[in-house]
# Entry
Amino acid sequence: MSQSQSSVTAQDEIASTYERNGFVVPIDVLSQSQAQRLRADLETAEAELASDSEKLALLKAYPDRLLPSFDALTRNETLIAAASAVLGPDLMVWSAGLFIKEANSPKIVSWHQDLTYWGLDDICETTCWFALSTASEQAGCMKFVPGSHKTKIVPHVDTYAEDNLLSRGQEIAVEVDEKEAVAAALEAGQASMHHGLLFHSSGPNATCDRRIGSAIRYIKPSMKQQTGDQPLVSLVSGQDHFGHFNIAGAPKGRLTEEDFEMCRQDKALKQGLLY
# Structure
């Protein structure tokens, strides 16, 4: 079934809906024309880096560290208000990587819980998934199982399946009833927000356009890596009273070598955490 497209904006309504269902959708963030400009900036950068596979991969993993427009997206007041409704006023961005399904792509995301492999010590995290292009059911929008965030992390298996966009092809090892799932369709410029323990997945893109989204992971500064490592984050609201992470400022410019090098170092650190 499809979620109602009436926009949810009030913080108290966001908090109650999130507590009950584990997700909120849709949240109106940018106009479609603003989303189109953001997409154009990304796709221009992709074209500029087309001959450099390493930098192109870093762009997809760290758009907010390499493009000022994406850094601004993570600081968008509507997204900050939504995340603050469930986490409080102090917010960091742990990552904002892109999930791209090309036109007519078989790529999927298997049923999983986000916090399974990140090595964080608590569950004070929420993901705002922002749509740069239409994320319809046909395009492979996300699907959520309402209320599944109220469980703990369940067993997962690593499939490393070729058609899976997840780093390890991680998949919940218990049966998920597809009939309980809600399709979180989004227009360009809208976002959904979901709990780190919520069961979610997405299907293939059967349309003639790319399905492009940025998964912005907001965390409380009180969170920390269980290993004691300090990966790169940005402080986008409030204050950090803990010092558990390496706080980066805004990008030095657009696709600067200094920012690429910072991303390389963080990628090496996070590969150790995730694998």
Notes: Residues 11-274 form a domain with the Jelly Rolls fold (CATH 2.60.120.620). Residues 257-274 form the longest helix (18 residues). The chain has seven helices and 14 strands. The first strand starts at residue 23 and ends at 28.
